[in-house]
Design brief:
There is one protein chain. This protein has 551 residues and is mostly helical. The chain has a domain at 24-239. It has helices at residues 12-41, 45-65, 68-83, 85-119, 126-137, 140-156, 161-165, 167-178, 189-214, 229-265, 281-313, 318-345, 347-355, 364-378, 381-396, 401-425, 427-452, 462-488, 491-494, 496-519, 523-529, 546-549, and strands at residues 269-270, 273-274, 533-534, 540-541. The strands form two sheets. The chain has a two-stranded antiparallel sheet. A hairpin with a 5-residue loop joins strand 3 (533-534) and strand 4 (540-541).
């Protein structure tokens, strides 16, 4: 039986539902974590210090665990697992060992250097608190990098659920460490930051152990890695361009953190001029980022995560590769565009509901500042999602150089806009520069994909173009409905925190109902809700692998 050219790849809808469902659960735990930590730290210097210390190991995770190394390793591992399983096991053992050694050495050297710096500074200041928190959380870096590679291996084996659930471990550990704060009279947020930082490291140990346990019977660890050395050498050569490209992105992220943390780490002026940000800026930026990352992580990255192994398997078949990429683009836009629209409209209610209440959390000024940051990020949630899909398509085809060069251009634009926009827009300038740079990079990737991935074939065939237009129309309809709720909700009669919380709930329900009703007969909705898998040519496929049964 043949079917439409753009039918989904085998298992994609079910895998996306698995990843998205578990990511929703983990993000709910993450939301609970943020509800606790924001009420411990608030929009203060301590909140900024914790946010910076937590961000640093996660930058390395994105670079090594889920970035360049993952992009070079997973296609090679998937290919070898099919044709030379013993070499695949040796390659995995070698890569995990090298990654643990390198990131462990970085953590040790970084911690020693920061401790030496702390001893040279005045004690008991916000600056020393911030640097010591980085030292406490640095051991999380090698642990989460190794765990992320293990999670990628699980995905190659068709096991998407375990790694999608792994963040629940981190969030649970932080909650266990943070909740007692509210039952201790006169508890010091600064002291509690160290306890929560230690809980983050414990979570890294558990996440790595959990991933190893879930690979039992699939991965075979060995010290006889010699057969994998030629493959590893080729893999590291391929990794080079991706490492440079993604490395510049991580440098840019670090520069964002430095820009936001300048008042905390350096001082209130720059070259004798009053700096536009303050000691609360990094906390405002961090917690605002968490809100836009919720829909991106739940849905946008879920599509890219699931589509990457499928693209890698079809890299040798251009027609199937193009169909799979179109499928990924359609699904990603179908999910992410309404998320962009909805998040922009409910931003103030969302920040106020999540980050205030119980007499703790953000100040009113912090709420207003965070809402402006959320608006900046939200306008490009669709772009972030599509960029993940296109980048993985290049990596699946063995092309790590193209994303590298587009990353260079995007980083240059982002840094320039950062330095310009913070003066009139404060923290929101960092968000808007990220959004503009993302759209710019996505445009470059889409233009280059036509020539380098699609063989000159346009990505927007008739069905894909119709899907894009349909998704835009449905998102506009949903946006009008949500805007009406935001404007007409009887806030004065309800008043206070409850008014924003109830208005947010009403907006979400109305938006979801309107979009679901408009999308009920679309192919994208059918793909996501299909009870059975479909092959790339539209045939249903009721076969189950042991890995799928294990889900």
């Amino acid at each position: 039986m043949s079917g439409p050219a753009n039918a989904p790849a085998a298992g994609t809808g079910r895998a996306i539902r698995t990843v998205s469902g578990l990511t929703v659960l983990s993000r709910c735990f993450g939301l609970a974590r943020d509800l606790v930590t924001v009420r411990i730290f608030g929009d203060t210097a301590v909140g900024s210090a914790f946010a910076a210390a937590f961000a640093i190991p996660n930058l390395f995770r994105r670079l090594f665990g889920e970035g360049a190394l993952s992009a070079a390793f997973l296609p090679a591992y998937a290919r070898l697992l099919k044709h030379e399983p013993e070499t695949a096991h040796a390659l995995a053992s070698l890569v995990i060992g090298v990654l643990a050694a390198i990131t462990g050495a970085i953590a040790l050297a970084g911690g020693a250097g920061l401790l030496a710096l702390v001893f040279s500074l005045e004690p008991d200041t916000d600056r020393t608190l911030s640097l010591l928190l980085v030292v406490v959380m640095l051991p999380y870096m090698p642990l989460i990098c190794v765990a992320a590679i293990l999670g990628g291996m699980l995905q190659v084996h068709g096991r998407f659920a375990p790694w999608a659930a792994a963040p629940i471990i981190l969030n649970s550990c932080i909650l266990i460490a943070g909740v007692p704060f509210f039952f201790v009279e006169g508890a010091d947020p600064g002291a509690w930051a160290y306890r929560i930082g230690a809980a983050v490291v414990v979570a890294g140990v558990v996440q790595a152990g959990w991933s190893v346990w879930m690979l039992r019977g699939r991965a075979q660890w060995t010290t006889r890695v010699a057969p994998a050395k030629p493959e590893a050498a080729a893999m590291f050569r391929r990794m080079g361009p991706a490492l440079i490209g993604l490395g510049t992105l991580q440098i840019n992220s670090m520069l964002d953190t430095l820009i936001a943390m300048w008042p905390n780490w350096v001082g209130p002026t720059v070259l004798g001029v009053r700096y536009p940000l303050d000691e609360a800026s990094n906390a405002v930026l961090f917690y605002a980022q968490r809100l836009y990352q919720f829909p991106l992580g739940v849905f946008g990255i879920a599509v890219a995560t699931v589509i990457f192994p499928e693209l890698a398997r079809r890299a040798g078949d251009n027609a199937a590769f193009v169909r799979t990429l179109r499928h990924g683009v359609r699904l990603s836009l179908f999910i992410a565009l309404p998320a962009s629209v909805g998040l922009a409209l409910v931003r103030t209610d969302l920040v106020h509901t999540v980050y205030t209440g119980l007499g703790r959390g953000f100040s009113e000024d912090g709420v207003a500042r965070a809402a402006r940051v959320v608006l900046g990020y939200s306008v490009a949630v669709w772009s972030y999602s599509l960029m993940h899909v296109f980048t993985r398509a290049f990596y699946a085809a063995g092309d790590t150089r193209t994303p590298m060069f587009t990353a260079f251009a995007s980083v240059a634009l982002n840094l320039t806009l950062n330095l310009l926009l913070i003066w009139p827009m404060r923290e929101a300038g960092l968000a808007w520069s990220t959004a503009i740079s993302s759209v710019f990079q996505l445009t470059l990737l889409a233009m280059l994909a036509r020539r380098r991935l699609l063989g000159g074939t346009g990505l927007l065939d008739v069905e894909t173009r119709a899907s894009v237009v349909r998704t835009i129309g449905m998102s506009i309809a949903m946006g009008l409905a949500v805007a009406a709720v935001v404007v007409l909700w009887p806030r004065l009669r309800i008043g206070g925190w409850l008014a924003d919380a109830s208005g947010l709930a009403a907006s979400v329900v109305v938006g979801a109902v309107v979009y679901a009703a408009a999308a009920r007969r679309t192919p994208e909705m059918r793909w996501l809700l299909a009870g059975r898998d479909e092959t790339p040519d539209g045939d249903t496929d009721d076969r189950h692998t042991p890995e799928q049964d294990g889900e």
